[in-house]
């Protein structure tokens, strides 16, 4: 009887909300309140009701942490007096408890519902984040390629993937702080906390809102930071940068000795080979840990032969035979071989064609991704060996900027305002996005107002098979803006 009453009231709420939405030509309805908070049955019934009565034209949406909305609103209103245009806000997933289950069978660590509220931790980011001005339609832009709340098979795979990688991440965190006596203890706490969050998501995929590969990666980074492991790959990155820098001049000499057609293919192949060196991919990290001799040339042999899984190379070469681009914005991925032997030779080629280059790197560390501060050191050392790069820096035809992100993925709706302004000032007409996190997990379907190159090596067997390929398949996607 109680369940029937609950269904009746929920359906009634859904029908009334649907009627009001139709009356005012609204396509979305947001629901909040204690009757709904943390009750999946209520949310499901209202969603079904809205969908049924509107014939799919109206969408029901629910707010996480809605019990805090008034407090957050009052806080943000007060914060307006503190130069709010100088920074942005971001949710910290490590401090967010999500939607706790009421059933001990579903989630054994549940809390008593009476008088409790879910936690919500907001980070005040140092810089203001805005849309990339080159997004074709910012209002319809969704960074994530797959919604794991709806794709059960993908969700099961990725949750298991992150669980299996957890022990290795914890070991890497300890190795980065061997001098710290409590490193092992903190790593164990990190491991337990992140594991608990993964179990919550197995039973309640919507517990932290939209569930994507990006949110899983960001949650892991937030948990590492909470237990004072801000950059577990710092020593690895420094070592790999030193090794790659020693090979830079040899790579440039080899490229310069080639004819134009061969050189263009070698440059692209170098970009792709460099992207293999991603410690976030288990297949790669296993190789790098077991074979210290695995390097740039070995990575080239791993690449899929043409035709690639996604292959727009011929269209790209045809475009290069036309007039040079005015300015290229490049979102880079990993430290070491990726940026030094893959990206910088390509930057050098673009500059030689007369194209200005904006090189965008993460503001903060994530996995072995290169950060803005690290890129400044790398480019200074490259400039000492390369007069073209040195001249471009001096004339500001090459500018290094930070993205405002500390994620292995890329949200083009939350970029550093300084980067956005520079993109406008330079009349940027080419965007290059490299790496699985930035070009596959996010932005694969992003539509831009200018030409774009999205390229990556698929370093995950399951994902490669799902896309119709094998591990180390290549995505080289050249796109022109829609008319």
Summarize the structure.
The chain is an alpha/beta fold and 483 residues long. It has 17 helices and 13 strands. α2 links the parallel β1 (28-31) and β2.
Describe, in plain words, how this protein is organized in 3D:
- The protein contains 17 helices and 13 strands.
- The strands form four sheets. Strands 6-13-12-11-7-8-9 form a seven-stranded mixed sheet, with helices on both faces. A two-stranded parallel ribbon has the order 1-2. A two-stranded antiparallel sheet has the order 3-4.
- It is globular.
- The longest helix is centred in the middle third of the chain and has 24 residues, at 152-175.
- Helix 1 packs across helix 2 (40-54) and helix 8 crosses helix 10.
- By secondary structure, it is an alpha/beta fold.
- Helix content is 47%, strand content 12%.
- The chain folds into four domains: 2-62, Nucleotidyltransferase, domain 5, CATH 3.30.420; 68-126, no CATH class; 152-226, AF1104-like (Up-down Bundle), CATH 1.20.1700; 242-479, Uncharacterised protein PF01937, DUF89, domain 3 (Rossmann fold), CATH 3.40.50.
């Amino acid at each position: 009887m109680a369940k029937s009453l609950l269904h009746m009231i929920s359906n009634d709420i859904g029908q009334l909300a649907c009627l009001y939405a139709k009356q005012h030509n609204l396509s979305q309805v947001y629901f909040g309140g204690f009757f709904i908070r943390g009750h999946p049955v209520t949310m499901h019934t209202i969603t079904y009701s809205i969908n049924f009565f509107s014939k799919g034209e109206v969408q029901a949406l629910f707010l996480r942490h809605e019990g805090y909305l008034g407090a957050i609103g009052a806080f943000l209103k007060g914060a307006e007096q503190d130069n709010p245009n100088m920074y942005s806000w971001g949710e910290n997933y490590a401090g967010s408890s999500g939607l706790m289950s009421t059933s001990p069978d579903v989630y054994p660590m549940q809390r008593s519902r009476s008088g409790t509220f879910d936690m919500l931790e907001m980070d005040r980011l140092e810089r203001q984040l805005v849309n990339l001005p080159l997004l074709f339609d910012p209002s319809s832009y969704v960074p994530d390629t797959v919604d794991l709340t709806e794709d059960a098979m993908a969700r099961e795979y990725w949750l298991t993937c992150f669980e299996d990688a957890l022990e290795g991440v914890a070991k890497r965190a300890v190795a980065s702080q061997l001098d710290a006596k409590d490193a092992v203890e903190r790593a164990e706490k990190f491991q337990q906390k992140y594991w608990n969050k993964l179990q919550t998501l197995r039973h309640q995929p919507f517990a932290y809102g939209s569930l994507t590969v990006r949110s899983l990666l960001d949650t892991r980074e937030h948990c590492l930071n909470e237990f004072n492991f801000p950059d577990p790959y710092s020593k690895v990155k420094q070592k790999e940068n030193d090794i790659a820098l020693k090979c830079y001049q040899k790579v440039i000499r080899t490229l310069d000795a080639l004819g134009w057609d061969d050189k263009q293919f070698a440059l692209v192949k170098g970009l792709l080979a460099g992207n293999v060196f991603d410690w976030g991919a288990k297949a790669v990290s296993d190789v790098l840990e077991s074979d210290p001799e695995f390097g740039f040339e070995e990575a080239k042999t791993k690449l899929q032969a043409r035709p690639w899984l996604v292959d727009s190379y011929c269209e790209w070469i045809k475009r290069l035979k036309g007039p040079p681009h005015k300015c290229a914005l490049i979102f880079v991925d990993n430290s070491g071989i990726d940026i030094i032997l893959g990206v910088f030779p390509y930057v050098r080629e673009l500059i030689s064609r007369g194209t200005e280059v904006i090189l965008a790197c993460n503001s903060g560390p994530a996995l072995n991704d290169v950060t803005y501060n690290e890129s400044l050191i790398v480019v200074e050392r490259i400039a000492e060996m390369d007069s073209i790069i040195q001249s471009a820096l001096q004339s500001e035809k090459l500018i290094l900027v930070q993205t405002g992100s500390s994620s292995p993925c890329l949200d083009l709706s939350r970029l550093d305002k300084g980067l956005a302004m520079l993109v406008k000032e330079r009349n940027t007409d080419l965007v290059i996005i490299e790496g699985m996190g930035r070009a596959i997990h996010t932005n694969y379907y992003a539509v831009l107002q200018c030409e774009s190159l999205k390229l990556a090596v698929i370093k995950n067997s399951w994902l490669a098979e799902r896309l119709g390929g094998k591990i180390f398949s290549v995505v080289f996607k050249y796109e022109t803006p829609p008319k």
